[in-house]
Design brief:
The protein is α+β, with helices and mostly antiparallel strands. Helix content is about 35%, strand content about 25%. It has 3 domains: about 5-75 and about 115-165, no CATH class; about 80-110; about 170-295, no CATH class. It is built from 9 helices and 12 strands. Helix 3 crosses helix 4 (about 100-115). The longest helix is centred in the C-terminal third of the chain and has 27 residues, at about 270-295. The mean pLDDT is about 90. Keywords: Cytoplasm, DNA recombination.
Length: about 300
């Protein structure tokens, strides 16, 4: 499974030693089925699918984990409609108004009746840790989802002080410079997607381009009027394409045919999983190391 989006965190060499305990601590924090009176549960599941019995997938210095959640689908509108219906019946049948305290009790009754019958939705979020570089790579573009996965790791390990990226060079300024001058770091080329905004206000004009040549006067004119680059499509070494945000979240990750053609025919399903994971982690590591150089992303000590 290739990751589609990358939200990144870093951890220190000292923290890396603690990750060797994952195989021992994760079984105590597995996902369990949501109970009839619960809204949701969360825990670790096997990266190998429903039939998998291992909660980690390790290849070299990279270890993949997966967090699953089960949530009951009970929209507030459904609860409120049923509550309103019951309140109206009391008013019509008994000729009185329902007090606030009674409304709260009726709402609790509605929840107790509807919750066990609500559909259950399961969501999965994968991530892996790289010991040598001190990276946590989460397959999501949502900071909230990524932080939720880290919280599960912290709960399982007791402590896991991985931190968000702290660039010493402004991503927005550097990306704007690349487009304005056409001078990109070695190995990088412009893609066909960009988002430009005025940085001083959240309500200013926004320019978005997709499937368009970015090395044009039309695009640079937005920069001359004061806009800055908040997202930009890039290709690295003709091997991986992606959209980089000013928050350094990497979106829409795709490997080019150059990479995919290097995959060999595996002898078994397990060998294929190992090979796919190893290939993905290797290409990610090459990209992340270059981004760490460009934006000066320190690893915690």
């Amino acid at each position: 499974m290739f990751f589609r989006n990358l939200t990144l965190f870093r951890f220190s060499p000292a923290v890396a030693d603690d990750l060797s305990r994952l195989d021992y601590v994760l079984p105590e924090h597995q996902l369990r089925a949501v109970g009839p009176m619960e809204m949701s549960t969360r825990g670790f599941v096997s990266p190998f699918g429903r039939g998998g019995d291992r909660l980690t997938h390790m290849v070299g210095h990279d270890t993949m984990v997966m967090v699953g959640s089960e949530s009951r689908m009970l929209p507030p509108s459904v609860v409120n409609d049923e509550l309103a219906s019951r309140v109206q019946k009391i008013a019509e049948n008994e000729g009185r108004k329902v007090s606030g305290r009674e409304r709260r009790k009726i709402k609790d009754d509605v929840l107790n009746e509807l919750l066990p019958r609500a559909f259950v939705r399961q969501t999965l979020t994968a991530a892996y840790t790289n010991l040598t570089g001190g990276w946590v790579v989460v397959n999501t573009a949502s900071r909230k989802t990524a932080e939720g996965l880290l919280s599960q790791l912290r709960e399982a390990l007791g402590s896991f002080p991985a931190v968000p990226l702290a660039p010493e060079e402004s991503p927005r300024i550097l990306m704007t410079h690349w487009v304005a001058t056409g001078e990109l770091p070695a190995g990088f080329a412009l893609g066909d997607e960009i988002e430009l905004r005025y940085p001083a206000t959240a309500y200013g004009a926004v320019a978005r381009c997709r499937r368009q040549d970015l090395d044009t006067d039309e695009v640079r004119e937005h920069i001359r009027t004061g806009k800055q680059v908040f997202r930009i499509g890039l290709t690295f070494d003709d091997r991986i394409s992606f959209v980089l945000g000013e928050d350094l979240v990497i979106r829409k990750v795709r490997f080019t045919d150059v990479v995919l053609d290097e995959k060999t025919e595996p002898e078994s399903g397990e060998a294929e999983r190992d090979a796919t994971f190893a290939l993905m982690a290797l290409e990610h590591r090459r990209l992340l190391d270059r981004l760490a150089e460009i934006f000066k992303l320190p690893r915690p000590e």
